[in-house]
Design brief:
mainly beta, elongated, disordered N terminus
Length: about 230
Amino acid sequence: MKKLMITACLSILLTSLSAQINKGDFLIEGLVNYNQSNYLRESEPDSWSKKNTGKSENLYLSPRVGYFVNESFLLGLGVSYSQSKYKSTTDFDDYSNHYETTKNMVFINPYITKYHKIGEKLYFNYTFNVLFGKGVDKLEDYDEESYSDYNRKTESKVSEVKLNVTPGLTYFVSDRIAFAANIGRLHYSKSKETLQDLEDEPKTEREYYGLDLSLNTFTLGFQFYLR
């Protein structure tokens, strides 16, 4: 009986009833991306430092809701959260230096997605995102030694505007449930950082743009369609 129930559930899940996008459908989805990298660099024998190690972590979460104005165009709105962490340690003869940054951002994300059906259950799509975000970037830099009081701490308020064009695939596992995968992006972003707790509160502005095809851009999403 148990095997029969499992088989029936899998049959319902894996069989597409229509796998068709319709005008007036609502889409509820969530996207997630997480990546981590580590490095170790041994210094040359005559170098002033002996060893350098580091670790970076990036997390991205984005719940979204959209409405299909016709069979191929989706208008949506999402809220995104991102966290970036970086830690490094440099070892010297008699002490170590530690450097750490943590950046937390929250974005409002209106977007448009265009769908092209390429199979019974499979769609190719590309999404144009506009993200408006604010957050905080914290830095701590200190020496680990008994006779040093060096400890630098800073905190900056950050505002960002991002424009992304992202390709992806959507695969229906039932009439109402689909999985979405995205990798790569054409992007532009502009950020402004204001260093806090200083008399003149210096500001730093940055601009980035280009084509990114790295695995760091990969997101996997779960979608539910209200028909």
